[in-house]
Write a sequence for this structure.
């Protein structure tokens, strides 16, 4: 990703303002989502398969060759190089014409714009992952058919639930032996209380993936509407050809295998597992699709489901509880700040998601937190095939802003009508470590670095009088965040901090009245976070339960929990 030349047009402020209708229809055709999964469930493979179906790339497989996998980030960069498409580590945007939707409505093409926002993979699993979920309108929960629900998927799912993000479930790797479909659904229902409502049911057990039975909706609930039979392509490199067959022909072709699938589909209806759009949007049910990202089976169905069922960008509530409608003047929320993407420039890139109005590159916007103007002449995206700069972006789109030093996750940008969105909640940290300056002579630099990384939200910084300022405590969702702190302090501030793990495992919100008593307890220490919130760190959950039982009057409230 390179910085565009300064000579690029800066006169877009003069452009004709977009009509409210235009913004609304641009918002309506957008779907902004993330894939939540445990490492190895197939997120990179699926991303590539989605790009293949959207015709962004012509062949899958070249990137994720047989010789092992790289991280998603580098896959996307490789993709960018290999195919000349424009991808960033943060968002992939493509047009998609659903085969289900009418080709045009009132003479307007019904091509959808899909924004796939990347969640960092396991190697840099951290609070960033959660923040990304504040930028999407829906999530695809990708599950390995053999492994079922795995820890990271569960954590991310809880965040979706907390934020009210509707979830579409994709059971991947159906081409390999795995659990039975009913077992997988039971697990989802029982462990996370989400009712799975399959839209497509597999024909053939895991390991013998022949195709999908499309289940009827509404008045046709429980019926097998059609059989979509897939044909493998060499190495799964191309879109898998589909035959659409009637249930009668399906029975002739597949015999008992079809009959079994049809019977199971009826069983699901008998237990109320049919899609209901309202319950899905309310986060109570989840449409399910069985797929093989590797063979490109079921991938088109995932895209069509996103288009048909996932919500488009909608109004967002501001801090004063008034809605910012999609056709209000431009506003956006910063959800991620990335430093040092371009090693030559040591830049900082802030990614924002457009909430309302039209973003035009060159616009001067207001940074709500400081009230200061911010010039966006270096706005980058990902968008389409043009890998240059972004000219326009609409609600749901993601734009990267270069050298945005004042911007931090949760910040608001706007024009005209003032707005400030609520801050991104910081998630319950589970890892704690003491940060020490290597020597007193570097203390000033150390302090500066700590403040900067704290304000960027790289880790949460906690202090108390006992430990003093020279050894603050870092709190993080994932331990990788500590390594990021160490690496950045070294690279950007020339200080080499010492990091010592601290033996606490939980954080609870407390108050001044409870502090003295809590500090008297074994395995507990109270700290103040830089936003003023008092946090009690506790050694383990048994200790916490004990204190809650013995001293019920003390305030110990859960933070937004990741687990
Ligand atoms: P990520 O860590 O979630 O991004 O997972 P990857 O996309 O890197 O996939 C992990 C491994 O699973 C790789 O070896 C993939 O080739 C393999 N894989 C992904 N999807 C499928 C699938 O649908 N079927 C099979 N058999 N293997 C798959």
């Amino acid at each position: 990703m390179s910085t565009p030349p300064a000579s690029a047009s800066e006169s877009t402020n003069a452009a004709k303002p977009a009509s409210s209708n235009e913004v609304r229809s641009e918002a309506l055709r957008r779907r902004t989502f993330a894939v939540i999964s445990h490492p190895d469930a197939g997120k990179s493979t699926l991303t590539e398969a989605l790009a293949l179906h959207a015709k962004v790339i012509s062949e899958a497989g070249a990137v994720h060759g047989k010789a092992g996998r790289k991280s998603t980030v580098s896959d996307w960069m490789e993709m960018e190089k290999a195919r000349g498409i424009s991808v960033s580590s943060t968002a992939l945007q493509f047009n998609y014409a659903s085969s289900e939707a009418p080709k045009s409505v009132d003479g307007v093409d019904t091509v959808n714009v899909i924004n796939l926002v990347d969640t960092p993979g396991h190697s840099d699993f951290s609070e960033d992952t959660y923040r990304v979920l504040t930028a999407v309108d829906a999530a695809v929960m990708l599950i390995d058919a053999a492994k079922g629900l795995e820890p990271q998927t569960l954590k991310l799912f809880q965040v979706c639930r907390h934020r009210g993000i509707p979830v579409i479930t994709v059971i991947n790797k159906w081409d390999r032996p795995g659990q039975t479909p009913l077992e997988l659904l039971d697990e989802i229902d029982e462990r996370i209380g989400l009712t799975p409502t399959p839209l497509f049911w597999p024909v053939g057990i895991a390991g013998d993936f022949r195709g999908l039975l499309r289940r009827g909706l509404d008045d046709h609930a429980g019926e097998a509407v059609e059989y979509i039979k897939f044909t493998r392509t060499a190495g799964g490199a191309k879109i898998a050809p589909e035959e659409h067959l009637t249930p009668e022909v399906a029975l002739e072709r597949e015999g008992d295998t079809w009959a079994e699938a049809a019977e199971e589909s009826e069983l699901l209806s008998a237990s109320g597992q049919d899609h209901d759009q309202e319950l899905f949007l309310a986060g109570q049910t989840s449409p399910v699709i069985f797929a093989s990202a590797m063979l490109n089976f079921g991938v088109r169905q995932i895209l069509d489901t996103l288009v048909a069922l996932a919500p488009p960008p909608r109004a967002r509530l501001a801090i004063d509880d008034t809605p910012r409608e999609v056709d209000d003047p431009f506003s956006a929320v910063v959800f991620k700040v990335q430093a040092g993407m371009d090693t030559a420039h040591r830049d900082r890139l802030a990614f924002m998601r457009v909430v309302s109005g039209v973003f035009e590159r060159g616009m001067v916007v207001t940074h709500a937190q400081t009230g200061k103007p911010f010039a966006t002449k270096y706005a980058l995206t990902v968008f389409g095939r043009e890998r240059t700069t972004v000219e326009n972006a609409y609600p749901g789109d993601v734009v990267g802003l270069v050298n945005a030093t004042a911007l931090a996750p949760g910040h608001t940008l706007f024009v005209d009508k003032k707005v400030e969105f609520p801050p991104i909640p910081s998630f319950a940290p589970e890892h704690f470590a003491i940060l020490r300056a290597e020597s007193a002579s570097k203390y000033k630099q150390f302090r500066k670095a700590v403040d900067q990384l704290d304000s960027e939200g790289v880790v949460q910084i906690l202090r108390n009088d006992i430990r003093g300022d020279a050894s603050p405590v870092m709190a993080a969702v994932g331990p990788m965040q500590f390594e990021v702190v160490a690496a950045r302090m070294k690279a950007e501030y020339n200080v080499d901090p010492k990091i010592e793990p601290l033996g606490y495992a939980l954080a609870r919100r407390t108050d001044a009245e409870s502090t003295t008593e809590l500090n008297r307890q074994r395995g507990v220490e109270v700290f103040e976070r830089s936003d003023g919130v008092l946090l009690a760190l506790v050694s383990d959950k048994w200790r916490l339960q004990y204190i809650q039982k013995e001293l019920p009057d003390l305030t110990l409230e859960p933070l937004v929990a990741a687990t």
